[in-house]
Amino acid sequence: MSEDVQKHSVHTLVFRSLKRTHDMFVSDHAKPVSLDEQSYKVKMSAKLKSDYGAVLHMPVLKEGKDRVPLHHGSMQGQYLQSDDPEYLITGTHAYPSGPGVALTAETKLHRLPSEGGVHSMALALPASQARQDAGRTAASVGDIHRHAGMTERIQPPLSTLSLMEGGGTKNSSLIRKAPTMPKPQWHPPWKLFRVISGHLGWVRSIAVEPGNEWFVTGSADRTIKIWDLSSGKLKLSLTGHISTVRGVAVSGRSPYLFSCGEDKQVKCWDLEYNKVIRHYHGHLSAVYDLDLHPTIDVLVTCSRDATARVWDIRTKANVHTLSGHTNTVATVRCQAAEPQIITGSHDSTIRLWDLIAGKTRATLTNHKKSVRAVVLHPKQYTFASGSADNIKQWMFPEGNFIQNLSGHNAIVNTLAVNSDGVLVSGADNGTIHMWDWRTGYNFQRIHAAVQPGSLDSESGIFACLFDHSGSRLITAEADKTIKLYKEDDTATEESHPVNWKPEILKRKRF
User: Fold this and answer.
1) Which helix (H) or strand (E) holds 121?
2) pTM of this prediction?
3) Integer Cα distance of 65 and 74 in angstroms
4) Exposed, middle or buried: residue 440 (CB in 10 Å: 0-12, 13-18, 19+)?
């Protein structure tokens, strides 16, 4: 007589499956993998070609032996390279990455002249360069590239003007303007106006619903709580995660709430029934962040397993596994324009992904420490990334570097920006810095006191977010509270002046 098979609930079977997965992969995390030198070389060469193929051919700046002095004896200390004109470019981006470099209103990318500029500048060159042999009536393209921007330094201004009036065209690129520092926009200071208690653990994540009436928080106490934005009262608590809830997001296209946590689970909650209706299985370790694509039904999650995964919300299918990072992927952001996915990782890089192909479009390697936060500007085609070394601003679509925001000397966990150009950075030591987005001017620093009953060390800022109006700032903190900030209505430019001093501009060396 055969025994009856004991029936288990789906809940029990899911956790048995999770336990078996853990037992299967625990050996990979417990013991170090022996490194094979030959396979490591093959891996690195393939990685170089795939990630840095576009810049491997860039020339190296040659020192004195290949440089010749200008043939004008009065100009001392200036040299031109005698080789290919492409060698005039030095560096890979327009702005130096060192501290203390200020963005100016006149700063532009240093590029070689276009073909149109070549022909318009040919007439402005000195006659000795323009007519080196009888068969030529204008300077060659090589001459233009070699001497681009040098004419006004070699010739007196009067002779240059007379040369252009005698048949040339006045080119605005030949006129050198004095560099000016853009003055920061005045922003009123922000002040704390509400502290919300209710969680029993660190508050790790925040999301505001599209109607701007309530917001969601996820905590280390394994619960998700929904709060009324205007009154700060608790509306609902959701339980289901078995570990810290690290990310939450509210859909603007459907009545769904998405959450992820250190239990490797990604859940979809139906807010009409307040229960989980879908699970997205696939991550092999803790899931640290998630974001929803604004125009299509796609969810993107990132994890400690060094991957980001793209999910079809309805079918639960894993559309893409975005692999390439070599350490924990700490943050992910989506946008409708290209590139559609941006990830920041503890391997100190930021990757811009092509959603259709599921491949990396660009890898940004300027950071020296883990990148834990990325935020997109609501109006401009730019974004910022936060790390312990610096906050950096970038330009889409290729990830061109704009400027450093230096001064927040701590591990930056979170960034937020509103449409008024106020950038907020929150750090592990409980400090909040307010920045003017355009100039990088730090106009306010806040260090809120920890709540009674909490340790002084429990003052970290884990997440911050502006509501959809941009007038209220919500922070999630290590003292188990949620704090709301708003602008000080009584402040004026006279009572809180901009304490701004122009820095000495560092000229780029070509």
Assistant:
1) helix 115-122
2) 0.66
3) 21
4) buried
